[in-house]
Design goal:
The protein is of the alpha+beta class and 291 residues long. It contains 9 helices and 20 strands. The chain is globular and about 55 Å long.
Length: 291
């Protein structure tokens, strides 16, 4: 049997609704194909980042995250300057990065991708020192992420974000953010800074954004108020967001949110920074394992 790649698999056992049977199937397929796997189970927030930070590059051919976007976010922050590529076993609530990369979801197909080990170079975003793969956000979506219950996410998946969105909408306080995009000033009620074009699953926020494009795309929601938030959300779910005249998408290399001190900034579905914040693309790129 041909010897396969050596992987450290970082598994978040409480991520999403896919449990141990799916992971076991993937690992069995990988083992049958000759892969050597060291399995690490997280037990608390930050475990994935700490394990990735301590990884020996010479001991593995890659790191595989068996979890969702939050566990991936921890891992890419832990990897720092490591040259190891990242693989994904999608097990989270939304799996936005896996969708953006066009990764499969069946156990056999996921294992095949990891066994073949093809690499693709993408760019990562950085929000005040914290990496993100897919998007950062300020305003309404960041407040939803800050308040959503991790227990509810485990019970009802994406429905937890829908529920928290309704709760936040009821107590929404209109605000305008001062956002500087490559030396041009804008004001918006909320902003999503997209590195890829998918958002919250397979909804499209910034149609032109791609992971191999060394630019960010800032989706500016310019009008305030509960009615506008509901209108923007409905347009996003129906695929009509880019038809709204008060939604503007601007390509950028550096984005600075100048005011609203101490408000949350979400990145890949977790809070990664507080305002004021500077958000940019990291140079050099980052390798992921794809089919």
């Amino acid at each position: 049997m041909t010897e396969g790649p050596r992987y450290l698999v970082i598994h978040n056992p409480v991520s999403g609704r896919r449990r141990g049977a799916f992971l076991s199937d993937v690992l069995s397929e990988m083992s049958a194909a000759g892969c050597a796997v060291e399995l690490y189970h997280t037990t608390a927030a930050g475990d994935a980042e700490r394990r990735a930070r301590d990884v020996d590059d010479d001991a593995f051919d890659g790191i595989v995250v068996a979890g969702g976007d939050g566990t991936i976010n921890e891992t890419i922050n832990g990897l720092g300057s490591s040259s190891l590529p990242l693989g994904i076993i999608p097990m989270g609530t939304a799996n936005v990065l896996a969708a953006e990369l066009g990764l499969p979801i069946s156990a056999r197909a996921v294992a095949d991708v990891l066994v073949q080990g093809k690499r693709r170079r993408i760019y990562l975003g950085n929000a005040s020192g914290r990496r993100f793969a897919m998007m950062a956000g300020v305003g309404f979506d960041a407040h939803v992420v800050a308040k959503v219950s991790s227990r509810l996410k485990r019970w009802i998946g994406k429905g937890a974000y829908v529920w928290q969105s309704v709760v936040e909408l009821l107590r929404y306080k209109p605000a305008l953010y001062h956002i500087r995009i490559d030396n041009m000033d804008w004001h918006a009620a909320s902003a999503v800074i997209a590195n890829g074009h998918f958002y919250g699953g397979r909804f499209v926020c910034a149609p032109d954004a791609r992971l191999d494009d060394p630019r960010l795309y800032v989706c500016l929601f310019r009008r305030t108020g509960r009615l506008q938030v509901a209108r923007y959300g409905s347009a996003l779910m129906m695929g009509r967001l880019n038809r709204l005249k008060d939604v503007t998408v601007v390509a950028a290399t550096t984005v600075t949110v100048l005011d609203s001190a101490d408000e949350p900034v979400q990145g890949d579905g977790d809070i990664v920074a507080r305002l004021p914040a500077t958000i940019s693309i990291e140079s050099g790129g980052f390798e992921v394992i794809v089919r």
